[in-house]
């Protein structure tokens, strides 16, 4: 069962020169929909293609061309909504958001202002075991991405690449429920994790496939609670929106800078102007880009080329029936089925590849031991070499084979680490590699007994000490294992030593 009991984290408090302030943050996440074709054309969404080669006439806004909705993109938005426990709107509609920019050939972006496809949902953001923020989702709407302006190819010219023009985006809008920079970053991490589990967005932030607009305001302690009770935004401060953030670190730095900037203005008796700002990582500051446009500045109106989008409940139900297991459920299951700690379960469910690998190793084996090996040995080794789990030279079957040899008492923990190293570099079936390298733990009592007798006979003084203080018997165990060249099974040695010493 999923245990969602949690306590909310404390909001971040910043001490100004005059008094304390709290942060209030709401995020708009633009997530590129995983789909082979664009939202309103059949053109490919592949990246890295020759500039302007994946552009249909409708993407280039040729006269008379009409958009045709790609139902797979709609399905992806519905799947995302279901993954965020959100309401799915069976009727939604597309609007034109008008603005002029060289990378926007239509002169407007098709978006969904008035009737989005997805309504209210939620995301649980864990900050520590048992401490979590429930961030409410206000809406998700579908919209077109813009093209790319290129200014750095020639000092005297600007270019434009329309390959990205018309690719489907989901804008996922949160309520202002996030209360600090760390929570903001954790929210993006969690949302990205859910999208990747769902397969609706690849979450590649480096290539801008997931980017965040971060809305920040500050208020005096107590004001947020008034907003919560009434949902009346006038209790909150004026927000500034920091556009296009695609790094967890910069999101946190930008929020911190922006909050302090606003506090300084307010304590000086000034007012915050609602505006759009850009973060400059080189100078760690935000700068005004433009004053905030209101919806009416965009002259939104229903797109006359597109009928309202109507979907069937049965179709939504079919998508719901095919949902994969999501991160919270998988984590709870790992804790329950494999006895993992909260921390280990979080690490192992961070992405689907790690979770799948771990599960293959843990199935039918000691789950905790499997977790230790995957997290400490495997991840440690992969990190050292800068590899991802998909590129691991040791497969889950091979790692499972190593654990089986330990469980059978054939190799010691120390030998297992050496064996792991051998399998990592040379590959092969672990049992065969172990045999080829003479890695076999001695469990034969007869052979070990002789060594124990010999060491006891040679060290009468140690024997006296150990009989007086049984904790010192470990010394004999160490000696016997050393004498065997590390091959004697420590469990067997320990039993014999204790018996021979009469302990
Ligand atoms: N006082 C506030 N402090 C912090 N965040 C706020 C505040 N008021 C609203 N927000 C957040 O600002 C965001 C507003 O996004 P929304 O898409 O609704 O409008 P927008 O930013 O005006 O539109 P656009 O998509 O054109 O940028 C939401 O995430 C909301 O939670
Ligand atoms: Mg928005
Ligand atoms: Mg916005």
TrEMBL record:
Single GO molecular function: ATP binding
State the EC number(s): 6.3.5.-
Q: Which residues form the Asn/Gln amidotransferase domain?
A: 356-501
What chemistry does it catalyse, as a reaction equation?
A: L-aspartyl-tRNA(Asn) + L-glutamine + ATP + H2O = L-asparaginyl-tRNA(Asn) + L-glutamate + ADP + phosphate + 2 H(+); L-glutamyl-tRNA(Gln) + L-glutamine + ATP + H2O = L-glutaminyl-tRNA(Gln) + L-glutamate + ADP + phosphate + H(+)
GO terms for biological process? Answer: glutaminyl-tRNAGln biosynthesis via transamidation; translation
Its EC top class is ligase
Alphabetical list of InterPro entries matching this protein: Asn/Gln-tRNA_amidoTrfase_suB/E (IPR017959), Asn/Gln-tRNA_Trfase_suB/E_cat (IPR006075), Asn/Gln_amidotransferase (IPR018027), Asn/Gln_tRNA_amidoTrase-B-like (IPR003789), GatB (IPR004413), GatB_C_1 (IPR042114), GatB_Yqey_C_2 (IPR023168), Gln-tRNA_amidoTrfase_suB_CS (IPR017958)
Report the domain of life of the source organism: Bacteria
- Enumerate the Pfam families for this protein: GatB_N, GatB_Yqey
SMART domains in UniProt: GatB_Yqey
**Which controlled-vocabulary keywords does the entry list?**
ATP-binding, Ligase, Nucleotide-binding, Protein biosynthesis, Transferase
Under NCBIfam families, the record lists: gatB, PRK05477.1-2, PRK05477.1-4, PRK05477.1-5
Similarity-based family: Belongs to the GatB/GatE family. GatB subfamily.
Give the protein's function. Answer: Allows the formation of correctly charged Asn-tRNA(Asn) or Gln-tRNA(Gln) through the transamidation of misacylated Asp-tRNA(Asn) or Glu-tRNA(Gln) in organisms which lack either or both of asparaginyl-tRNA or glutaminyl-tRNA synthetases. The reaction takes place in the presence of glutamine and ATP through an activated phospho-Asp-tRNA(Asn) or phospho-Glu-tRNA(Gln).
Can you name this protein?
Answer: Aspartyl/glutamyl-tRNA(Asn/Gln) amidotransferase subunit B
């Amino acid at each position: 069962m999923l245990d969602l009991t949690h306590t909310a984290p404390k909001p971040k408090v910043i001490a100004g020169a005059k008094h304390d302030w709290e942060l209030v943050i709401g995020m708009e996440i633009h997530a590129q929909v995983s789909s082979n074709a664009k939202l309103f054309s059949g053109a490919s969404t592949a990246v890295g293609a020759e500039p302007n080669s994946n552009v249909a006439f409708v993407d280039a806004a040729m006269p008379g061309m009409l958009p045709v909705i790609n139902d797979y993109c709609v399905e992806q938005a519905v799947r995302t909504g279901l993954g965020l426990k959100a309401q799915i709107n069976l009727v939604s509609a597309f609007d034109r958001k008008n603005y002029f920019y060289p990378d926007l050939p239509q002169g407007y972006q098709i978006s969904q202002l008035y009737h989005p496809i997805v309504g209210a949902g939620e995301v649980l953001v864990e900050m520590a075991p048992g401490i979590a923020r429930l961030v409410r989702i206000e809406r998700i709407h579908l919209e077109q991405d813009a093209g790319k302006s290129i200014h750095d190819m020639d000092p005297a010219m600007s270019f434009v690449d329309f390959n990205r023009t018309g690719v489907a985006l989901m804008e996922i809008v949160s309520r202002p429920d996030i209360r600090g920079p760390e929570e903001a970053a954790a929210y993006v991490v969690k949302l990205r994790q859910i999208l990747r589990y769902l397969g609706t967005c690849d979450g590649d932030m480096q290539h801008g496939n997931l980017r965040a607009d971060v809305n920040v305001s500050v208020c005096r302690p107590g004001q947020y609670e008034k907003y919560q009770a009434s949902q009346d935004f006038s209790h909150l401060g004026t927000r500034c929106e920091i556009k296009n953030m695609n790094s967890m670190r910069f999101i946190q730095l930008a929020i911190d800078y922006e909050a302090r900037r606003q506090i300084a203005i307010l304590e000086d008796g000034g007012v915050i102007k609602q505006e759009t700002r850009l973060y400059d990582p080189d100078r760690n500051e935000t700068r005004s880009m433009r004053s905030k446009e209101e919806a009416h500045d965009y002259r939104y109106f229903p797109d006359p080329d597109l009928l309202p989008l109507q979907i069937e409940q049965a179709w939504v139900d079919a998508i719901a029936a095919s949902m994969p297991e999501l991160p919270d459920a998988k984590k709870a299951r790992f804790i329950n089925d494999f006895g993992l700690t909260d921390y280990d379960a979080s690490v192992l469910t961070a992405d689907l590849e790690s979770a799948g690998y771990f599960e293959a190793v843990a199935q039918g084996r000691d789950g905790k031991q499997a977790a230790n090996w995957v997290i400490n040995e495997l991840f440690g080794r992969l990190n050292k070499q800068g590899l991802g789990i998909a590129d691991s030279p040791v497969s889950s079957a091979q790692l499972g084979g190593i654990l089986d040899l330990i469980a059978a008492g054939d190799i010691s923990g120390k030998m297992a680490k050496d064996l792991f190293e051998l399998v990592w570099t040379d590959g092969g079936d672990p049992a065969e590699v172990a045999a080829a390298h003479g890695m076999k733990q001695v469990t034969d009592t007869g052979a070990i007994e002789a060594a124990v007798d010999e060491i006891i006979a040679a060290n009468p003084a140690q024997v006296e000490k150990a009989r007086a203080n049984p904790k010192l018997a470990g010394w004999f165990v160490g000696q016997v294992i050393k004498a065997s060249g590390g091959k004697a099974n420590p469990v067997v040695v320990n039993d014999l030593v204790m018996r021979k010493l009469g302990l």
